[in-house]
Structures are given as C-alpha cells and as structure tokens.
Specification:
single chain, 345 residues, twelve-stranded mixed beta sheet, ten-stranded parallel beta sheet, flat
C-alpha cells in the first residue's frame, strides 16, 4: 500500500515540510534510504545522512532545522522514534493474520481455546489449560497443563511454558523462551546436592514481552512475577522467586539470582549481573556489565563491578588509566625518601 506524506502526517498529527503528495510504500534506514521509502532521524549523530539520503520522506523531531538543503519531504513530529514505532506497528497489524488450528496440533480435551485463535503445526496444549481470544500459538510451541493465557497473546515457535504458569493479555513470547523451568535449588547433604522441589509458578502480567531464548524459572513456593509492561531482551536468565516491577526493561544477557526484587521503571544494560535476595529501587539505571552485590536505592545510576554510582565510576576509571604513572612516581618518591634518610644519617 502507498501513503502520501500528508496522510502520514495527519495520522501522526505532524507537519509536512516539502511536498505533501510524496508517496512511500516501505521503510528504510536513513543511511540506506531508497526512493519510495520512509525513514527517520532521532539521533543527532545521524544528521549528516539526511543531506544525502535517497529516502522520499524523513520523520524528524519538531526542533530539527536543517543546516543545508534537504531533498526528501520532512514530517515534523514531537518524537520521531516513537512515531516510527507507531507506523511500524500499523504496518505489522496490516499483514495477513494466521488463523485456524492445524490438524497436527494437539489440544487436550479439557483445554479451552478462545475465539479467533491460531494454533500451528505440532503445537501442544495440555490439560485444563485456558487460552484467551485472538491468541497465536506458533508451530512446535509447548504449553503444559493448567496454564492460563490471556487475550491477544503471541507464543512463537519452540516456546515452552511449564505447568501452572499464568500469562496475561497482550504478551509476546519469542522463539525458544522457557517459562517455568525449575529454579536452581539444591541443598548440600553428606557431600552431595539434594534437589529442592520447585512448587511455585511464573506469572507474566499484561503487556509483557519476553525475548528469544530467555528463561524465567518457577518459584520454590509462590510465584516468580514479571509485572505489567516489562520488556526482556534475548538470552536473559531470571531465577526463582524474582520479582520485576512494572515497565522495567533489560538488555541481553542480564542474569538475576533468586529472590531479588527489581523495582518499576528500571533500565538494565547488557550483561548486568545481580546477586540474590537484593532489592533494587524504582527508576534505577544500571550500566552494561555491572555486577550488583548489595541493595540499590531508588533513582540510582550505577556502573562497574561491584557497581558504584556512575559519576564515581567515571572518576575512578580516569585514575585507573594513570595507575602505571602513579606507581612509577610513588616508587621514585619512596626512593627519594630513603635517600633523604641516608643523608641525614
């Protein structure tokens, strides 16, 4: 489908700068723009591309003013990145939706399936499991017994959801994710490790998205809880009895040990590791590869291993670079002191 710049601007409540009749039918990156595509500029580091891009339309922030001639038609919006996300979601929703239940899928006789659901080839849905309306269960997904899944949720191929887990409305679980495997619970006894039964479950509230090959362990007792609006990247490990507050986001390879509670609206960079039984306050930002071994106060910004306030880390990193020079100066100073002592004698 083709849309004009004016149609797009009207939809986004933006302003056209240039030809309002310019048409586009696809998206592109600004550095690889082609005629007939729409792209965006949100990061000032990419501004130089706008003066050479071949894209037909560029979404820009309202405060953007070009310093030289720009060939594409511009659409000014309050937030170019958010507007692009809106258009991408609209495009995704316009795609033909899969529907029906494949003949090779297994659905237990006591399971219930809401209206307009899709169940792909070789998917498995266990006993007494209830799936809401408009859900999409892709091929080879495994959903165990007594699972509850809300409306409009997508379960991609090879996802495994263990018995008794609860998934909310409008969730997305990407390929290979495992929800509800046993937590890492073992008790040392007579030189061996005795397995501790994991009797709890996992609860994902509404609007949660789980990345590919991410694992969320079931609780020992009670629930491992991922609250409303949380977004987890690929390859993340969430241990048993962890609680993650609403609208928190985590990048790839984060690992959180058992019984730790993460607050709401937090941001965790890639490869952050957090020890068990800790509390991380709301609105906390933890930089990539940080190691957290103690409780973190609300509104903190921390970095490093062990993690410390970011400003302290930056100052420390400058000193670390100078350590060889400091060491030589200290050695010379010690020598000078020794020489002074000898001269006094």
């Amino acid at each position: 489908m083709e849309f004009t710049a004016q149609q797009i601007a009207d939809f986004l409540k933006g302003d056209v700068v240039g030809d309002p009749t310019t048409k586009v039918h696809d998206f592109s990156k600004i550095e690889e723009g082609l005629p007939g595509t729409i792209t965006f500029l949100a990061n000032p580091k990419y501004e130089h591309f706008i003066y050479h891009t071949r894209a037909s339309i560029v979404l820009v922030n309202q405060d953007f003013f070009p310093v030289s001639a720009v060939e594409p038609t511009l659409i000014k919006v309050p937030n170019a990145y958010a507007s692009l996300a809106t258009l991408l979601n609209l495009s995704e929703q316009s795609k033909t939706r899969k529907n029906g239940v494949d003949a090779s899928a297994f659905i237990a006789g006591t399971a219930t399936l809401g209206e307009d659901c899709y169940v792909g080839a070789f998917a498995y849905i266990g006993k007494n499991t209830a799936i809401g309306k408009n859900c999409m269960i892709y091929p080879h997904a495994y959903i165990g017994d007594h699972v509850g899944i809300g409306d409009n949720t997508i379960v991609y191929p090879h996802v495994t959801i263990y018995d008794g887990c609860v998934i909310g409305n409008n969730c997305i679980i990407h390929a290979g994710a495992v929800i509800g495997a046993d937590g890492f619970g073992f008790a040392p006894e007579n030189g061996e490790y005795k397995k501790i039964a994991q009797l709890g479950n996992v609860i994902l509230e509404d609007n949660v998205e789980i990345g590919a090959n991410t694992t969320i362990d079931r609780a020992v007792i009670g629930a491992t809880t991922i609250h409303k609006g949380v977004k987890l990247d690929n390859l993340i490990q969430i241990a048993h009895n962890v609680e993650i507050g609403k609208n928190t986001v985590m990048a790839s390879q984060v690992g959180i040990a058992g019984s730790t509670k993460i607050g709401s609206n937090c941001m965790l960079g890639g490869q952050v590791g957090i020890s068990g039984h800790l509390k991380v306050g709301d609105n906390t930002q933890i930089a990539a590869q940080s190691g957290v071994i103690s409780n973190v106060k609300t509104n903190s910004q921390i970095m490093g291993t062990p993690a410390i306030p970011i400003k302290k880390f930056m100052r420390s990193s400058i000193i670390i670079k100078k350590l060889p020079e400091i060491y030589l100066n200290l050695a010379q100073l010690q020598k000078d002191v020794e020489d002074l002592k000898k001269n006094k004698q």
